[in-house]
């Protein structure tokens, strides 16, 4: 008895705990996508293309990391850290196999607002002489990166909270016109922020509403201060980058490895600047000292979180929207699926964890993701290999970037935004397809330009919701009139056939709670209208039935097909006695020849 009880308890224990273990394994696979694809990784087929793509990606990671750090108003070395840690974390938690996460122009531009507001350039004189023990950087630089790290931390926390609340499914509000307009407007802001380096001018930091226009007003007012050397070098760099990248794109099927023009340009410009001493001779601004190594992690300053909450929300929403669009695009292109909610967790952790390592806010970048496409990357191993190359730059090659002219770096950034800027071509498509989508694109872009990318995104979402609410109640319900009535026959067990009429009803919008009431009313009107039109058939059928009950023979001539069907369906017809004829003489002839005229009673009527 005791053994039976123990066996029963063992079975119950197994039933209770085995499913929990399986559920935990499934949860791990779902929340750690690296466990799913790493176990099936084919070294023979994937390692070589991933290695080549990773090395090419590292060039973009380094150049964009330096430039976007400057865009975020922090020391360039922190851009290298931002190209390393977020990419590693996303490779573990992210589902986009061809998405490159790291420094991003839009999030850098947003975090720069907080940096310039809380640690303005005017405070540099107070801290320039005192250096910290962190990489030998000044207190001023450390204060600035602390603000940027706080923005990254809080933005990541917001994204993780959105993941917990399962708000990834709310991305249906982020329509294609809204995302396209927002990213195009933000790219325009980034190009504007690089104008001072392209022209070699000293432009004060300008932000806020209409700041875009104030910057260009300042440029035109001080047009005489443009450095001709910087302008010519910028134009030459842009021309070389555009031409070589177009040639790479055109002949990518014929050549196995594309020319890394970004790397070649960086080496050539740095070497030329070093040999000619352009920094002192022509006054060109260069990147400057890049310290070696990675400092120990530090907790972001929690006391300033309340001061950067606006920028944190902007980083969370704008970064996630841009990254999700790239992840969904890569999933569609290479035929795999992406969980919107899991992407929130991946980017949230990328921002939260990286903020402890002096990283600026991160997200996926279109230029780097397109680079992975063109170089034939297969998995996130390409991004991990690029991280190894970035790590080598941080510990070895960083000081060699001292002589890199900022105008060349700005040129690389501007050309890298080509994919976003050419989205202006979408306007023609939206105009031909839907004028309302065209209007949403234009208005979202204008708001992004006049205010900020996050404001433009919010305006676009509000417009989308307003259009949806306005369109649904006015949805039209139509009964198709240009098609003949469709019929189908249902065979019963007794082998007889009944004919059913099928009415086709069309509604020109998705059926949801907003228009369900109107759809029901329209449907009832259609049914009532159809019933009204069929009343003559019902009346004729009633006349025939009443006549038969009074021993009156009835025949029909020149009947329509619909009347014949209605009579066969509704009337109790004698199958041995035809009543439908093509003409009146044919009906009379049938009557006189049917069972002889003598059998007709005196009161029979025709």
Features:
606 residues, two-stranded antiparallel sheet, single chain, 8 strands, 27 helices, two-stranded antiparallel ribbon, elongated, disordered C terminus, mainly alpha
In short:
Helices cover 63% and strands 5% of the residues. It has 606 residues and is mainly alpha-helical. The strands form four sheets. It has a two-stranded antiparallel sheet with strand order 1-2.
Structural write-up:
By secondary structure, the chain is mainly alpha-helical. Helices cover 63% and strands 5% of the residues. It contains 27 helices and eight strands. The chain is elongated, with a radius of gyration of 37 Å. Residues 15-19, 481-500 and 595-606 have low confidence and may be disordered. This is Anion exchange transporter isoform X3. It comes from Camelus bactrianus (Bactrian camel).
Describe how the helices and strands are arranged.
Blueprint: H1 2-31, H2 34-38, H3 43-71, H4 77-82, H5 85-93, E1 101-103, H6 105-118, H7 124-127, H8 139-164, H9 176-193, H10 195-199, H11 211-221, H12 228-250, H13 261-276, H14 278-281, H15 309-334, H16 340-354, E2 362-364, H17 366-375, H18 381-397, H19 406-416, H20 418-421, H21 426-433, H22 435-450, H23 453-471, E3 477-479, E4 486-491, E5 497-502, E6 505-507, H24 516-533, H25 535-549, E7 556-557, H26 561-570, E8 580-581, H27 584-593
Parallel strand pairs: 7-8
Antiparallel strand pairs: 1-2, 3-6, 4-5
């Amino acid at each position: 008895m005791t053994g039976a009880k123990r066996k029963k308890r063992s079975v119950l224990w197994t039933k209770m705990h085995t499913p929990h273990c399986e559920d935990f394994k499934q949860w791990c696979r779902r929340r750690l996508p690296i466990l799913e694809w790493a176990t099936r990784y084919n070294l023979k087929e994937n390692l070589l293309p991933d290695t080549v793509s990773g090395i090419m990606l590292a060039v973009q990671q380094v150049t964009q990391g330096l430039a976007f750090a400057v865009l975020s108003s922090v020391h360039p070395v922190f851009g290298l850290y931002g190209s390393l840690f977020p990419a590693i974390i996303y490779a573990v938690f992210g589902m986009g196999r061809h998405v490159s996460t790291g420094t991003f122009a839009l999030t850098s531009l947003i975090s720069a607002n907080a940096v310039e507001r809380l640690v303005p350039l005017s405070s540099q004189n107070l801290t320039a002489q005192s250096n910290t023990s962190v990489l030998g950087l000044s207190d001023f630089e450390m204060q600035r990166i602390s603000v940027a790290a706080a923005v990254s931390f809080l933005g990541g926390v917001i994204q993780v909270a959105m993941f917990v609340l399962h708000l990834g499914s709310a991305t249906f509000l982020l329509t294609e016109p809204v995302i396209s307009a927002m990213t195009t407007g933000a790219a325009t802001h980034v190009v504007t922020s690089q104008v001072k380096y392209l022209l070699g001018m000293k432009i004060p930091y300008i932000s806020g509403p209409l700041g875009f226009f104030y910057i260009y007003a300042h440029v035109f007012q001080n047009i005489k201060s443009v450095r001709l050397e910087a302008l010519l070098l910028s134009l030459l760099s842009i021309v070389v980058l555009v031409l070589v990248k177009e040639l790479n794109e055109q002949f990518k099927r014929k050549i196995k490895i594309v020319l890394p023009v970004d790397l070649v340009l960086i080496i050539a410009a740095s070497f030329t600047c070093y040999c000619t001493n352009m920094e002192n001779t022509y006054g060109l601004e260069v990147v400057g000292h890049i310290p070696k190594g990675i400092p120990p992690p530090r907790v972001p300053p929690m006391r300033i979180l309340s001061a950067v909450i606006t920028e944190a929300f902007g980083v969370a929403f704008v970064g996630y929207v841009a990254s999700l669009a790239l992840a969904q695009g890569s999933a569609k292109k290479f035929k795999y699926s992406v969980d919107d909610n899991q992407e929130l967790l991946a980017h949230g952790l990328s921002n939260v964890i990286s903020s402890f390592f002096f990283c600026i806010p991160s997200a996926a970048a279109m230029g780097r993701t397109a680079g992975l496409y063109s170089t034939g990357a297969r998995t996130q191993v390409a991004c991990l290999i690029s991280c190894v190359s970035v790590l080598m730059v941080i510990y070895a090659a960083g000081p060699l970037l001292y002589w890199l002219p900022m105008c060349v770096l700005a040129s690389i950034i501007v050309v890298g935004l080509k994919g976003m800027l050419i989205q202006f071509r979408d306007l023609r498509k939206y105009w031909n397809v839907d004028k309302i989508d065209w209007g949403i694109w234009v208005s979202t872009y204008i708001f992004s330009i006049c205010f900020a990318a996050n404001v433009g995104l919010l305006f676009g979402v509000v417009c989308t919701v307003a259009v949806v609410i306005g369109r649904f109640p006015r949805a039209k319900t139509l009964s198709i009139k240009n098609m003949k009535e469709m019929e189908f026959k249902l065979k019963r067990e007794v082998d007889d056939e009944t004919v059913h009429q099928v009415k086709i009803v069309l509604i020109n919008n998705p059926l949801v709670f907003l228009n369900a009431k109107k759809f029901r009313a329209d449907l009832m009107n259609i049914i009532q209208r159809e019933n009204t039109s069929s009343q003559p058939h019902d009346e004729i059928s009633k006349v025939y039935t009443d006549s038969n009950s009074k021993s009156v023979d009835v025949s029909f001539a020149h009947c329509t097909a619909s009347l014949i069907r209605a009579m066969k369906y509704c009337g109790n017809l004698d199958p041995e006695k035809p009543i439908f004829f093509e003409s009146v003489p044919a009906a009379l002839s049938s009557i006189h020849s049917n069972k002889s005229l003598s059998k007709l009673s005196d009161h029979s009527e025709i």
